[in-house]
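Customer escalation, tier 2.

The customer says the design service returned an amino acid string that "doesn't look like it belongs to this structure." They asked us to rerun it and document both sides in this ticket. The original structure tokens are below, unchanged.
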């Protein structure tokens, strides 16, 4: 969403994310999803910690009103001015990576906002082109997937299906863990702000359009994921977001 009370820059219309979220929220109220997940960059950077906390409070208040259990994937802009602890406190969460189960499926939230040396992103101490999932989180992920024993969907901000500046630097190591588990079906990610999709060794990697891109309701982007008893996954995209269906 990149919400911030500041003028538009390029194709990013920060203030309009509030109205776009309201439209998405109306759809979610009708559909009543069990879970609601934002894929990172919930807020955009501000000049001061106080201003950034205010942006977070405004967008979090609107997001929290919507149906479903809320999940927050950490994006690089979330911790450009804030620390991880400050961001997590603002959304009333304790951890930046974790997993949960629902209706026969396992879900994993990852945090790639770490530098190559393992230091967590916070307060302008990083380059956005240096995202990594550190060793400790990789070990946790492998152990978590071994215990899952059920179809799994993964959510992460920076991309795991590329090797360029939009990608997690150790994406290949992460993919190896996902593939060797034999349970991961799909990965949903953001960061590059565009519709994109590729299948790698049987796993569906889908990049969703950023809500902040473009002015006006016609440039909104949000989606609903339906999971069927036979294992079919169907992503219904609204406005600029594409639809996908995997039997």
């Amino acid at each position: 969403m990149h919400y911030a009370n500041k003028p538009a820059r390029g194709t990013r219309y920060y203030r309009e994310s509030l109205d776009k979220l309201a439209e998405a929220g109306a759809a979610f109220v009708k559909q009543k999803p069990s879970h609601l997940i934002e894929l990172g960059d919930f807020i955009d950077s501000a000049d001061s910690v106080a201003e950034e906390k205010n942006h977070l409070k405004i967008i979090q208040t609107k997001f929290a009103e919507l149906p479903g259990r809320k999940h927050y994937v950490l994006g690089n802009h979330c911790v450009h001015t804030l620390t991880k602890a400050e961001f997590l406190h603002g959304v009333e969460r304790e951890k930046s990576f974790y997993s949960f189960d629902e209706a026969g499926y396992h879900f994993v939230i990852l945090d790639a906002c770490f530098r190559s040396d393992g230091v967590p992103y916070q307060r302008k101490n990083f380059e956005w082109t240096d995202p990594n999932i550190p060793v400790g989180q990789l070990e946790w992920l492998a152990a978590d997937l071994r215990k899952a024993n059920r179809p799994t969907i993964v959510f992460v901000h920076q991309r795991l299906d590329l090797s360029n500046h939009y990608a997690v630097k150790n994406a290949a190591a992460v993919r190896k863990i996902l593939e060797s588990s034999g349970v991961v079906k799909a990965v949903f990610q953001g960061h590059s702000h565009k519709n994109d999709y590729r299948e790698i060794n049987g796993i569906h990697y889908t990049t969703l359009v950023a809500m902040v891109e473009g002015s006006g309701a016609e440039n909104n982007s949000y989606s609903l994921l339906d999971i069927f008893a036979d294992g079919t996954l169907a992503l219904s995209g609204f406005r600029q977001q594409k639809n996908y269906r995997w039997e």
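Tier 2 assessment: The sequence is consistent with the input. The chain has one domain: 17-246. Residues 114 and 222 are 27 Å apart (CA to CA). Sent an explanation to the customer and offered a walkthrough call.
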